[in-house]
Structures are given as C-alpha cells and as structure tokens.
Amino acid sequence: MIGRNGKNPQAEGRIPLPQASREDGLGPDPAIVVAEGICKSYPSIRALSPLSFNILPGEKVALVGPSGSGKTTLLYLLAGILQPDEGVLSIDGRPMTSVRPGRELSQLVGLVHQQYDLVPHLSVLHNVLAGRLGQWGLLRSVISLVWPRDRQMAEEALAQMGIGDKVNERTSHLSGGELQRVAIARLMMQSSRIILADEPVSSLDPARAEGLLGLLTDLVRGSDGNDGKTLIASMHSPYLIRKYFSRVIGLREGVLQFDMPSSEMTDEVSDRLYDLEQPEPALWGVGN
Questions:
Q1: How far is 133 from 262, CA to CA, in rounded Å?
Q2: DSSP H helical ranges for the chain
Q3: Which of 60, 148, 172, 204 is deepest in the core (most CB within 10 A)?
C-alpha cells in the first residue's frame, strides 16, 4: 500500500494487522471480502484509487473519512450496485462480477441506505417483505402484494425489533426510530452474510444512534451469540466506532489512509483525517 507521498508504510516498520485464528487450529480464517487493487472513477472524479484489503467473517468494520472520500462508493461496490473499473473484488471466494443479481446477491450482501428507502404508502408488513424480493422473483413478488408470503417470518423480525404491533400500519405514520427498525427488519428478511450500512446514524441524536447500532450489532451477532455475519458501515464518531466496531478503515480522496483496530481510533486520529488543510495526508496504519 503506497501513500500519496509515495512512501510504503510497511517499509517504515509498521506492523500489519494479524489475521483471526480458526477455532479448529487449521490456520487463519479465510476472508469473506477480498479487495485487490480496486479503482472506481466517475466522469469528473476518481472516487477510489487502487485499494486492497481483506475482511474476515464476523468483523465489524467502520469506514471513515470526509465527504467525498469514497466511503459510499466502496459500499456500493460491496453491494454489487457498482463494479470496479480496475482490480478484483471477491466476496465469499467469488468475484462480484460472477455473482448474479437477485437471490445470489441478496444472500451475500444487504445494504441499509442512509434514507432507508421505505415505501411510505405501503404497510410495514409489505416494506419488511421487500427484503425477500431478491429470492422470490417477479411473479411471487406480485402475488405477495395481495397474499403476503412469509408473513410469520416478517412478524417475528418486527417483534425482535420491538415493533411487532406496527405490522399493519402504514409506514408514513411511523416515527424516525420506528422507521429504522423497519429497515433493519427488512434486512433480516434478506438473510445476507454481510450487512452494509451507509452512514446509518448521521442524522440521529446520540441516544437514537446508540440504539440503532445496538440493533445492528445484535443482528450481526445472531441468536446463538456467535458472530456469523459481517458488518461494514460508514461512520464518523470515534466514540461509537470504539464501542461498536472492531476495526476502522480511513479513506480520504479515495486513498486508504489507515487500517487499524477500533481501539486506536482516537479523536486526534479523526481530527487529522478530517483536516482538509493538510497538503500531504499521512498514513497511520496498514491494511492486512
């Protein structure tokens, strides 16, 4: 990994993050996400410069950086909404270019957009069942508008979110906190291995922000207490990152600035990353 100043941080003596060990003693756990030199450009800007990293199953990774740093672009690449211009992005051992939209993609990744993307005039039930669309196909999706399929599964998801009594209510009648829970219940219906969230707490007060991150953490952990899913979210608050995430990746102008345990994400590190007056941003860590 080369910084904007042309220096290689590994050559400067920085130590790569260790890989997690498997409980069966058979070596390091295989990465569920592997990015190898991925780049993405738009007509007037290079959103991501060559970017390489691995993410292990069960990790909770926060993406940080100023506006325009490439966080949302990276999430859209991971979600299969965009494809890299260069490099290879693989999930669960498969290049994203070989993953078919629909059932295959929805079982791998699920994305919570910043504005939740709920349909206001539909009921909470139908918004939650939208998480099954990728697995149903067109005909079953149309039939479900009249005779909802997987209703019990949706009701259980809403009950787990604490809003089981809202199942037949129109989504437009819900509060902001309830909308968050509907969006997460919809994601639960998708049963994806990787949960992506685009600035999920950017417009929330501190109490609501912690509540939402607690829900996402519970979703990743699973009912058996094991970290079976992986969480990747764009964030800003060092405090929330340290509390709810295990690792943090810093981006600036599409360039990887650091990759470190969340415990090292201090206010000072955050201030340096967001200081737009720096002519030559420094690297504070390395990827694995």
A1: 35
A2: 71-78, 103-108, 124-129, 133-136, 138-146, 151-160, 176-190, 206-221, 238-244, 267-274
A3: 60
Please state the domain extents for the chain.
29-92+193-288, 120-190
pLDDT of residue 228: 72
Question: Which H or E run includes 62?
Answer: strand 60-64
Q: What span, in angstroms and rounded, lies between the C-alpha atoms of 75 and 78?
A: 5
Q: pTM to 2 decimals?
A: 0.80
Q: Token pair for residue 202?
A: 């950017």
What pLDDT band is residue 29 in, cutting at 50, 70 and 90?
low
Helix axes 176-190, 151-160, angle to 10 degrees: 130
Tokens of 228: 């079976």
Buried/exposed 97-115: b ≥16 CB within 10 Å, e otherwise: eebeeeeebbbbbbbbbee
CA nearest 192: which of 57, 40, 44?
57
Alpha-carbon distance values, 110 to 104, 208, 233, 234, 280 (Å): 11, 22, 12, 14, 35
The answer to whether 122 touches 171, Cβ cutoff 8 Å, is: yes
pLDDT digits (tens, 9 = 90+) for 200-231: 887 778 888 888 888 888 888 765 555 578 99
- As a CATH number, domain 29-92+193-288 is 3.40.50.300
Only one residue has tokens 């690297």, namely 283
Collect all residues with Cβ–Cβ distance below 8 Å to 57 and sequence separation of at least 6.
29, 30, 31, 32, 193, 227, 228, 230
CA dihedral sign, ordered 236, 234, 156, 226: negative
